[in-house]
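Why this split exists: single-chain examples teach little about how molecules sit against one another. For that reason, every record in the complexes split bundles all components of an assembly together and asks for one structure covering all of them. Below is a record exactly as it appears in the raw files.
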Amino acid sequence: MADSIALPRLRPISPQLHLFRLLPGIALLAAIGYAGKLLEQNLSRYAKAHHAVIPNIEYVLWAIVIGLAISNTVKIPGAFLPGIATYEFWLKAGIVLLGARFVLGDVVKLGSISLVLVALELGLAIALMTWLGRLFKLRPKLSSLLAIGSSICGVSAIIAAKGAIDADDEDSSFAIAAILALGAIALFTFPLIGHWLGMSDHAYGMWAGLAVDNTAEATAAGALYSDAAGKIAVLAKTTRNAMIGFVVLGYALHWASSGQAKTISNKASFLWQKFPKFVLGFLLISLLATAHLFNKEQLTSLANLSRWAFLLTFAGVGLRTNFREMTKQGLRPFIVGALGEVAIASLTLVLVLGANRVFHL
Amino acid sequence: MSEGNEKKSSAIRARFRISLDTWAVAIALAAALLVRAGVLKHIPW
């Protein structure tokens, strides 16, 4: 059922996988992303040449909007779907390469601040979503999935938790639909709120990374504000992603104790299995950059490679968001998700503004 | 191949299958190495 609202996830690559199957979709992602880039450049040139006042709309927004327009007006042929689903691969590769733009000292400093804020955010989000789920009489496992999705990293966390707590397909579909719809709304509202509050790039990036659930949407919400905000949003979101194993393990143990999920014999192996490996890749590249393994020009090349990878990701974010399919999933989980997200966004905003005063982010 | 053997070999395949995360890290690191080695000289934006 999740396939009806989100594009099929790319299966682990096996020798049997035909790379050719991926090409049409990847070409579509590249075409949309590049069209977004050209639109940004040409509109800016036109405005300069004609002394016209046109707001500078970043390629990020263009790529998302073009993707949204396509996915919500025409049925995407099946031949494109496997390639479009690679957007998550490009996202993770892009995050690893982005590590080159961070000195390890910054990662440790900002990562430590993020970690404290993430711990607070996790506690608040889980308590709030569980309470709202009870208030709106959602099925307990659906409440658990919504809590996991909103506290850590959206769709990936829900999929990771589904098997661990033996949740129904229907419950995970509801939770994924709610998280995706709210992520799409956050993309457009967060930058507006950030500008309205006059937030600094660092503070805004930290907020987007802490409050927007899906990694792709958090990256896009950050990049829509500014390049620097995008960088910080990825760092904060990566810190949050690193917690996925612990939270899913906690829920798995909770449901197993009441006999409603399988027991976990090897907790260390479970944690490693759920740990997002791209976090390690990000840290490794950052370490290599800090050790001056790359010269200035090479660092620029790595940063540009990361941008190209994100370009494909942003096109994928638009293409996989189908509002019609999302509305079919029911209103109650969406209301619970929306109320929870508004509260989490407000609380994390207060946390970030507080941290900004103390640590001068 | 018997059904039992087939199940066993698919279980082994599943055990050693590389995850999407690991692929992303491997490809990104390979790209970084190519940049470092000068094979990819200049990536424009």
